[in-house]
Amino acid sequence: MSHTRLTHALIVALALFGTLPAQADTLDKIRRTGTLTLGWVGGNPPFGIATPGTPEGYTLDLCRHVAVDVQRTLGLSELKIAYRETTWDTRFTALDNNETDMDCSASTITRDRLARYEFSPAFYVTGTRLLVRKADKIRSIDDLGTMTIAVIKNTTGEKLVVEHNAAASLGLTLLHVADADAGLAAVREGKAKAFALDDIILYSQISAADDGQTQYEVVGPFLSIEPYGIMMRKGDARFTDTVSNSLRRLLPTPEMPALYQRWFNTPSLNVPLNRLTKETFTTPNREPAFP
């Protein structure tokens, strides 16, 4: 290769290098500032709840446990925890812009997200199931042939119901509703025999309704499997390992069932510990959502 061509190639390489994003070193930033910033989404019980002073929730408790291990890893005598409330959309840009260090909401581990972000092992697994009247004795979506099912447009629930309806030739009629409240109302008023959505949201609806526990139930196998994990920036292996190892040590301990009971079995919410979440406690993993 001639000197001129070599020089040109070097200039191009340097120009390309200059366009690449610099790898974040979150642990160094935390050591320098003495602060770990947790992103969270409010109005999302039991994962994130706005309370006077410090926000509370299942995920936030887990992230505060991780913070203790981060402090220990860095050998800091004190570590301040800052909280930045985000939305379901801005949780991504907050990480991208170094405004938060961890997303402590309820982010599903998906294949697409794994290409852009790092995740801890899963700490909760949900999926699409059905809310029905107990009196109707419906056990799964296959019991709904030719009946009406309520779904929210552009949700995983709608997509899965459409696909299952076509594959099993059930002849279902879809009733589109605006939100979870409207889905429960459709079942209560007889406009639909079932309402399909993430089971944690369905359980929340049942718990909040005056007639919830006596009249309704969540049934059927998962139509999807959606594991939630702590989301972090890509390309920061030291921080990802610190967070993931902290959670990996915690999950198999008796602390996790106790923490689960604190947030999921309360006077206002009654969500049984499902088999898949129990398995993530005993065998920590970050397998992505399916399908």
From TrEMBL:
SUPFAM superfamilies recorded: Periplasmic binding protein-like II
InterPro entries membership: Bact_solute-bind_prot3 (IPR051455), Solute-binding_3/MltF_N (IPR001638)
One cellular-component annotation, GO: outer membrane-bounded periplasmic space
Record-level GO BP terms: amino acid transport
Domain Solute-binding protein family 3/N-terminal stretches: 35-267
Organism domain of life: Bacteria
Transmembrane stretches, start-end: none
CDD domains: PBP2_GltI_DEBP (cd13688)
Keywords associated with the record: Signal, Transport
Signal peptide: 1-24
Family named by the database record: Belongs to the bacterial solute-binding protein 3 family.
Protein name in the entry: Amino acid ABC transporter substrate-binding protein
Protein source organism: Denitromonas halophila
Organism placement in taxonomy: Bacteria, Pseudomonadati, Pseudomonadota, Betaproteobacteria, Rhodocyclales
